[in-house]
Write a sequence for this structure.
């Protein structure tokens, strides 16, 4: 498999940055529950969450996975686990999106405590996933310097 060109790595870093920004927005919403909720922010985040996650995962699969396949001792298993995490994240994102839409419309399905718990579970999982992928990249970088 071909290694990504140096000009492609900013695409991967951008994907990570957009996901981290999403996590910050979700954390802000969770922190605002129930009394300071910005319904417009909920609608904005609901519209962006699905496409953002799909685009970020596509970038990771196109740019990171080839490196994992060729540079990690257990590359195929690591890729399979990352793919499964992508599927889980996208399914969870749909649930978060639905609740954000309902909150933005003033018709939440869940109690504020449950919504906060759901949002925190999602964004903490995404942050953990990104940290893992960044650690993989750092490991590959260290190996290439040796």
């Amino acid at each position: 498999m071909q290694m990504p060109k140096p000009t492609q790595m900013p695409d991967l870093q951008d994907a990570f940055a957009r996901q981290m920004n999403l996590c910050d927005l979700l954390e802000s919403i969770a922190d605002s529950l129930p009394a300071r909720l910005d319904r417009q922010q909920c609608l904005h985040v609901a519209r962006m969450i699905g496409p953002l996650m799909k685009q970020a995962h596509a970038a990771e699969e196109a740019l990171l996975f080839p490196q994992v396949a060729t540079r990690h001792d257990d590359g195929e298993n690591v890729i399979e686990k990352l793919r499964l995490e992508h599927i889980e994240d996208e399914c969870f994102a749909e649930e978060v999106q639905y609740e954000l839409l309902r909150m933005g419309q003033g018709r939440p399905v869940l109690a504020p405590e449950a919504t906060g718990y759901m949002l925190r579970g999602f964004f903490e999982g995404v942050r953990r996933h990104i940290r893992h992928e960044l650690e993989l990249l750092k490991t590959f970088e260290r190996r290439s310097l040796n």
User: Anything to note?
Assistant: Helices lie at 9-32, 39-63, 65-71, 75-104, 112-145. The chain has a mean pLDDT of 92. The two ends are 21 Å apart (CA to CA). The domain at 6-145 is CATH 1.20.120 (Four Helix Bundle (Hemerythrin (Met), subunit A)).
